[in-house]
Structures are given as C-alpha cells and as structure tokens.
From TrEMBL:
The lineage of its organism: Bacteria, Pseudomonadati, Planctomycetota, Phycisphaerae, Phycisphaerales. SUPFAM superfamilies: Metallo-dependent hydrolases. GO terms for biological process: proteolysis. This is Membrane dipeptidase (Peptidase family M19). GO terms for molecular function: metallodipeptidase activity. PROSITE patterns: RENAL_DIPEPTIDASE_2. PANTHER family: DIPEPTIDASE, MICROSOMAL DIPEPTIDASE.
C-alpha cells in the first residue's frame, strides 16, 4: 500500500460548514445524512479513520471561508453556505477553522506540520507503522488558506503564519478582495487588486507558498511576476484535456514546474472530463485522471511534478468522482492504472507521496 500525501483537502470546512464529525467512520457519517439532499450529503468519502486506513499520512488542509460583498444579508441562511458579506466575518470564521484543527491536534487526530523537521519525523512515523488505524497515528497537516478572504489586513498575515499557515491561494470562484478567481464556465478573468499585490509581497517576505489553483489567467500572469517564491497548484487538472478556465494551461503548468512545484490531480469528474450536467449519472473512470497525470509528466519531461490534490468531499461527494472510487481508500487502485501507463514502482511512489514530500521538505522553514 502506498503512503498518500494529499495536496488538497478541506477538513475544517467539512466539519464546520457541513457539520461532519470527522472522528466517525464514513458509514456513520453517511448514516447521519440524507442521501437525497441536494448537496452531496450522504455521500461523503472520508473521515480521519478512513484517511488512516487509506494510509494518507500527510495532507494539505484548508481554512476555507469566503467573503462575497454582494451576498444578501436578508437571504435564507443555509448552514452549508460559506459566503459572508464582510471580511471581518470571514476572518473570524477562518479563526474558527484554525481552532478546530488545534482541537483535533489535542485529541490526537491531526498533527500540525510547520517545519522541515516536523515533516521528516512525521513521515518516519508513518513509514514505520504497519497499521495506522490500530496505532491511531495522527494525520499530518500543512495548513493552507484557500482564497485569502479571511485575511482582513495584510499586516495580520504574520499572525496567521505564527498559527501554522504555510500556503495561500488568492481567490476562490469569482472575484475576491485580492484578485480574480476562475468561474466554473470558460469565462471569467481579471487582474489582481492592489491588496492582492501587497499580500504577495508579504507572502514572499514570510516564506508562505503561493497556490495558483482557482486563480484566473490574468491574475496568474501578474501574480507570478510579483511573487518570487515557489509555486504550486494544490488542486488543478489540465485545461488541454478538460477545457474549463478552472484547469491550468500548459504554460501555467510549466511555470509551476520551472519553480520546482507540484500540480495536484483532482478527483472531481467535471475537472477530469470538463463540465457536464451534474444531474446525470456519469461514467468517468480513474483511467481518465491518468491522462492528466501523464500530460503534466510530458510537460515536465519527468515524473517529479505531479501528485494527488484530490479535494475529495470539498463540494462534491462519492457520486461526482470516478466510478471505481467509493471511499478514500480506493485511491490505492490508481497505482495499477499508473503502472498500466508505463509508470515504474519508483514513479508511482513519487506520485503518491514523494513529490509533495520533497517539495515541502525543501520549502517549509528549517
Ligand atoms: Zn477548491
């Protein structure tokens, strides 16, 4: 079984917005939710024990809460709605997610990874264990912010860093106070804001990694000029295969590769094949995900710059991932697919965990 390093999960959002107790099993969480709910309820794919059983020893997990000034304060409040009309509220909700992670660390479920040394020790712990569920190993977590909306003032970024924040993406879908995020369709582009440019300079100063996922083409072009540090795409597929603005162009992928970064392959089927009707059952196979992985490797000329960035349960569930995958542990099946595409055992280990491990062992502080 491969050790998995997942470049993108929204564990706190799933707990605090979807109200999922990640300490339960997948079957228990599914049992508490109605499968006919319009969102992906009843079809979760992961929990802490499921991640352990899948041998997911390290994940990058988000603080994810949005500020959308256009949100109607009079709307019916849906608890799964992560949009707040004012950045003060996004800030406080972001802090709530940090607080969730800290509590989960106290309970032995998670372990914050904030330095090279912590990551190296943590990887050894997982490599030595034959049964992470029985040993109740903590899941290593590098904390990132998906969309910078919780950063109220740029001079507070150092405070977030102190709390363990090591990576930021500037925008989620649509415009943010920092720049332009992609939309789900092919339109949607725009520049960075002045605040976004200031934040990039501060991220460079602090050594916070920039995640390009979700950022629009124009904003990526500007951001990669201003920001001089390492680039990653925690969860993006290839636009040449799935033609939506949410995926990365070959030129953007090459920018990540040139700065030694990694692109995380996403399990969401509309990011594997491109947009199609969500109400219809699909037949997307994990073999199609391999097309994206192979393309990144072709662009790099090696197998060093791609890994998982599954985003599983981050707005979609078991019905919107490839048909061979029901719960998180089924990701182990992908090794055989990669082998069929000519990947050696060494290449497969690089994809599952070594590429992300190498990146973070280099770019976390000493
Ligand atoms: Zn996302």
């Amino acid at each position: 079984m491969q050790l998995i390093f997942d470049g993108h999960l929204d564990l706190a959002m799933q707990a605090l917005v979807y109200e999922r107790d990640q300490r339960l099993t997948v079957a228990e969480i599914r049992g508490r939710e109605r499968a006919d709910n319009p969102s992906e309820r009843g079809r979760c794919t992961l929990s802490f024990d499921e991640l352990r059983a899948a041998r997911a020893g390290v994940v990058v997990s988000t603080i994810f809460i949005r500020c959308k000034p256009g949100v109607d304060p009079n709307r019916v409040i849906l608890r799964e709605d992560a949009d707040y009309p004012c950045p003060t509220m996004a800030h406080a909700n972001g802090q709530m997610q940090v607080s969730y992670y800290k509590l989960m660390e106290e309970l032995g479920e998670l372990r914050f990874i904030t330095s090279k040394g912590e990551l190296a020790t943590h990887l050894e712990l997982w490599e030595e264990s034959d049964d992470p569920v029985k040993d109740k190993l903590p899941i290593g977590m590098i904390m990132m912010m998906e969309g910078a909306d919780p950063i109220y003032r740029v001079d507070q970024t150092a405070g977030w860093y102190e709390q363990g924040l090591r990576c930021i993406s500037l925008a989620h879908f649509g415009n943010s106070r920092f720049g332009c995020g992609t939309t789900t369709a092919s339109e949607g582009d725009g520049p960075l804001t002045e605040l976004g440019k200031e934040l990039l300079v501060e991220m460079d100063r602090l050594g916070i990694v920039l995640d390009l996922s979700h950022l629009s083409d124009m904003s990526i072009a500007e951001a990669t000029e201003i920001y001089q540090g390492p680039l990653i795409a925690t969860h993006s597929n290839c636009r040449r295969i799935a033609d939506t603005s949410r995926q990365m162009t070959d030129v953007q992928i090459k920018k990540v590769i040139d700065r030694g970064g990694v692109v995380g392959a996403v399990l969401c089927v509309s990011m594997i094949r491109g947009d199609f009707d969500r109400k219809m059952p699909h037949d997307v196979s994990i073999r199609e995900l391999a097309d994206h992985v192979v393309r990144v490797c072709d662009l790099a000329g090696n197998t060093d710059h791609v890994g998982f960035g599954t985003d599983m349960d981050g707005g979609f569930g078991a019905d919107w991932i490839p048909t061979e995958v029901d719960t998180y542990r089924d990701l182990q099946k992908f090794a055989e697919v990669l082998s069929g595409r000519g990947f050696s055992d060494e290449d497969i280990a690089k994809f599952y965990h070594e590429n992300w491990s190498r990146f973070w062992l280099k770019h976390l502080p000493g």
